[in-house]
Amino acid sequence: MSLGADYLHMDVMDGHFVPNLTLGAPIIKCLRPHTKGFLDCHLMVSNPEQWVDDFAKAGADLFCFHYEATKDPMTLIDTIHSKGMKAGMAIKPNTPVDVTYEFASELDQVLIMTVEPGFGGQSFMPGCMDKVRELRKKFPELDIEVDGGLAPENIDLAAKAGANVIVAGSSIFGAKSPGAMISLFRTTVEGAQPNSAT
Prior knowledge:
Elements: E1 7-13, H1 25-31, E2 38-44, H2 52-58, E3 62-66, H3 73-82, E4 86-91, E5 109-113, H4 129-138, E6 143-147, H5 155-161, E7 165-167, H6 170-173, H7 178-192
Parallel strand pairs: 1-2, 2-3, 3-4, 4-5, 5-6, 6-7
Helix pairs in contact: 1-2, 4-5, 5-7
């Protein structure tokens, strides 16, 4: 955060919705007292409804669930908001973007995955930018997040497509100067999108 990031993007995986297994609400709870940063919790889990209370109590700022993981997105969005968190909806690369349209007015953010969820270090899928363009055109004020393979060679493409919230792991943590990489991302996105977060 001290290097200029606005959000901490927390990947939560259950070993079922995606094959990998990562952190959960107890780690968010332990982290919360040590940062005032925005905790953007991306739940790549089956049955996300069962985790809303835990993440709200842990101090998550945004609870982002996968459209593919729930049968009742609207009720889940309402539940997330009722617990004082912002609500985000993520879609996998092969999920059509129009599934988000009926919920967009109630969502705080839509996450377009630019890799298959579950593992870091994958290559960016430029074809997903068509979804970002469509979503930005239809919902000009919506926060649109992209996650997966974002790097200096493709950040301009994502920003011009309409993404204003960027998730980057390998390209920042693997950089010689993480602060300079965050600054590059921020400058690129702010040049294309006025409502941006890195």
